[in-house]
Amino acid sequence: MKTLILSAAALTLAGSLSAAAQDIVRLGTEGGYAPYNFLNDAGEVDGFERELGDELCDRVGVECEWVTNDWDSIIPNLVSGNYDAILAGMSITEERQQVIDFTQGYTQPDPSVFVAASEDIDLETAVIAAQTGTIQAGYAAEMENATLLEFATPEETVAAVRNGEADAVLADMAFLVPVTQNNSDLMMVGDQVLIGGGIGMGFRQSDDELRQRFDDAIQSMKDDGSLNALIEEWLPESALFDS
Question: How far is CA 194 from its chain centroid?
């Protein structure tokens, strides 16, 4: 009984500390998916979502702390409390909504594209590289005669095409456009694919109030045009929101 009383007291204190510490919001991101998020030369989180997150925190009236986390464990580590929200190019899907809650999308659904080393690739029977746990991996897995090859990082998916391990990579167009621009041996092939419902911030299902505060801030950026300005700066191939 004594242990139970102490545990209850500890939980009450932890709850009080959590509420008091909500002036600081920890944002979890991957740090490896340019231009959405990446680490700059100083080792700091940079990119579209860094600017977006800092602005949202300012509008919500909290201080941001950025935490980097591997993609394949980014949702479990949110749920377990290692950070307060995910801001990491995460598409809103029904499967993910069974585990976490999302804000409204801060991007429109972004086309996914295939990139290969040859125009002659038959995508229907190709080996397709995609990052584990992404909507693109899910899509490739459903391609009837293609073979999915999954990798932990987006860089590894591109490397797999360059070294001949995979025939093509499937990823967000905003990620792959700079890849083709910087690698003359790689090119877009096939048709664009529209998957998912846009990108949003992920929150624990128990943090509805915090999620709503950030949702309101996203809406305010849509209303005043500042979100479109960020999209034009960082994601020039992406659709804008109606003003």
Answer: 16
